[in-house]
């Protein structure tokens, strides 16, 4: 989007950097994104399976299929984000997810449900992720950690509110009205701010990342870069793929996300099997969500104090320690402690990993590079529940799968320690198309 239009009229009247408006738009999109979250779907599982007689495995297949589709499409969507910015991607994602949620209110068959939830899940796992972090990383460099931590908090807030909206609507009406309420929430919260206020890059408004005007404007409408921008990495996707840093971050992603998804999905059944009351198990999951939100904010605030790899390593330590502790859970206190540790680790991963990709490779081709990384992330997330389910069926409990997840988290720690920024290509120096 160019600097013309409503945002250009608004910026001179604002007493603060327009990037904070961009962050607010990204937070609205992050809140709306939860319309296709697994936590939201979980609210509809019981009423829909009771009415139609579907198996829960059949409903869950739509989640996995949507993730696979996101993995296939993300590398193509990333370059589109770099060319056109987050506005179009986020607005289309919100419209698609909102329409799919409303369409689900008319479900009469499993095939119908699978098609529309799968499309909604694809937007959740691919375009939403690219658009949200693409917008934040374009507008913030020095303050990227703070901005990303606020975004993480908005994601967790949406993860609490959207399922609650669905549940209250189902209680007072039915599950069909619940899907309508979810769709309306997604559209109202997510579309209007991003359609009216989202701008591709600060340079499009004569600004530089983190605030302040650019230097002299050229005849072609471009601006002279500031010294801070001249020091920013500017890798193309082809260049990034040739660096050890890209593959070490990818390895970290491939190791850490099976733990995140596998433990999250099977945490409650394991707790119940260990003798924890179901209501207490639910509160432990709430502890995990709260800890994730707080951890995301804390990691975002301190990520500039230490090398990024140390924040990734600390997150991996927590992510490995939690499943190790879950093996020995024997009472409520053990359950709350492991949920707290797991939340601390995952809040760090969700906040620091997008920052690492942007810090290491710059804003120029963030979407194209993140698109490849996102495919790895989605596939890794899909593998976690599969690992846990297969090992549970083979052994009759979750001990072996938790042991595997502990090992994966420990391996991620080693990958983080060896990860470092690549030799910078400043402002595209030596870049190729």
Describe, in short, the structure shown.
By secondary structure, the chain is mainly alpha-helical. It has helices at residues 6-10, 19-33, 38-52, 56-84, 86-104, 110-125, 127-139, 144-172, 175-197, 227-230, 237-241, 244-273, 278-302, 308-326, 332-361, 366-395, 399-418.
Largest sheet: none
Pattern of helices and strands: HHHHHHHHHHHHHHHHH
Shape: globular
Q: Helical residue percent?
A: over 70%
Count of distinct strands: 0
Separate helix tally: 17
Topology summary:
Blueprint: H1 6-10, H2 19-33, H3 38-52, H4 56-84, H5 86-104, H6 110-125, H7 127-139, H8 144-172, H9 175-197, H10 227-230, H11 237-241, H12 244-273, H13 278-302, H14 308-326, H15 332-361, H16 366-395, H17 399-418
Helix pairs in contact: 2-7, 2-8, 2-9, 3-8, 4-6, 4-7, 4-16, 5-6, 5-7, 5-9, 7-8, 7-16, 8-9, 8-13, 8-15, 12-13, 12-14, 12-15, 12-16, 12-17, 13-15, 14-15, 14-17, 16-17
Describe the structure.
With 433 residues, the protein is mostly helical. The protein folds into two domains: 6-204, Up-down Bundle (Growth Hormone, Chain: A), CATH 1.20.1250; 235-418, Growth Hormone, Chain: A, CATH 1.20.1250. Helices cover 76% and strands 0% of the residues. The relative contact order is 0.14.
